[in-house]
Amino acid sequence: MKKMFKLTLIMLLAFSVVLAGCGKKNEDKSASGGDSAGSGKSGVKVGLVTDVGGVNDKSFNQSAWEALEGLQKDKGITAQYLQSKSKEDYVTNLNKYVKGKYDLTWGIGFDLGADMKTVADQNPDAHLAIIDATVDSPNVRSITFAENEGAFLVGVVAGKMTKTGKVGFVGGSEIPVIKRFEAGFKAGVKAANPNAELKINYTGAFDKPDQGKAAAATMYNDGVDIIFHAAGATGTGVFNEAISRNKAGGSKVWVIGVDKDQSLEFGDDVTLTSMVKGVTTAVDKVTKEVIDGQFKGGSEVLGLKENGVGLADTSSKNVPADVLKDVEDYKQKIISGEIKVPEE
């Protein structure tokens, strides 16, 4: 009888351990975001394909990925990215997510436009979205920005604040989106300071900091004291050159950041202001539409009126109040249509 009691007790203890283990497994799954409360439509998978600038470009690729990271945390989605090393990677990378039955595949950058069109047409049931290009396919959501409008405003800042009367623009490749930056910046500088001289340099790359540094060095040597870059990771080199010069002493030089508030990365001592684009907001918005089952193709342009472009919130650290007032006046004139900012 005693032996039977001991055997029964051992079996009960073993069964309790098994139950505890099962409970722990369920807890781990919930903690990982699988079905936890507040995670939204869990199970949604989103893939992101960068252009050659990469996800750590301190610019728009990074802004896009930060949006998906936020949705992983807040909505419980699964998000992954592929970093393209060359243009030949675009179709392969896009297809990895499309063929993998991801709920949404993002392409970040103008250069992905043609390849996204190819992939979208071959996979009409897939949902795709792109930043900085317009793809005419019913299953693609295209988000572009009126970069020229935002660039006009930082052009006003540069025109008002240059001490040498010389400002510079460093671009990546000469593609429509970057030409909009240039055109808007040039118009803003001239509106604020008709006598200012503008120097322009296209490096031909978005992933070459050394080329950005060399371009900036040439401009600063020529007397430029403010450079606006629209060159992705190449722009890191512009900042590096300015930081080195300011540390060495001599005449103060500035950089105007792009796409996101780059003072957060490079500091207020070198970043005069930044022209921000709502890439994070756009990626967040469209991805949430997928989560909610509301995705639709089509295109939209986000400008000053839609709060899609503008100056960084930290601009008042280095830009005087009177200059910011002028910027606001120009902004309202652009929104009202009184000023039409050129695109090229």
What does this structure look like?
With 344 residues, the chain is α/β, with parallel strands linked by helices. It is built from 11 helices and 12 strands. Strand 1 (45-49), helix 2 (60-75) and strand 2 (78-82) form a beta-alpha-beta unit.
Please give the structural blueprint.
Layout: H1 2-31, E1 45-49, H2 60-75, E2 78-82, H3 90-99, E3 104-108, H4 113-122, E4 128-131, E5 140-145, H5 147-161, E6 166-171, H6 176-192, E7 197-202, H7 209-221, E8 226-230, H8 235-248, E9 254-259, H9 263-266, E10 271-277, H10 279-291, E11 298-302, E12 309-311, H11 321-336
Parallel strand pairs: 1-2, 1-3, 3-4, 4-5, 5-11, 6-7, 6-8, 8-9, 9-10
Antiparallel strand pairs: 10-12
Helix pairs in contact: 2-10, 3-4, 5-6, 5-11, 7-8
* Principal-axis shape: globular
Strand content: 15-25%
Largest sheet properties: 6 strands, parallel
In DSSP terms (H or I, runs of 4 or more residues), the helix count works out at 11
Mean pLDDT: 89
Structural class: alpha/beta
Radius of gyration: 25 Å
Q: Helix and strand succession?
A: HEHEHEHEEHEHEHEHEHEHEEH
State the end-to-end distance: 96 Å
The helicity comes to 40-55%
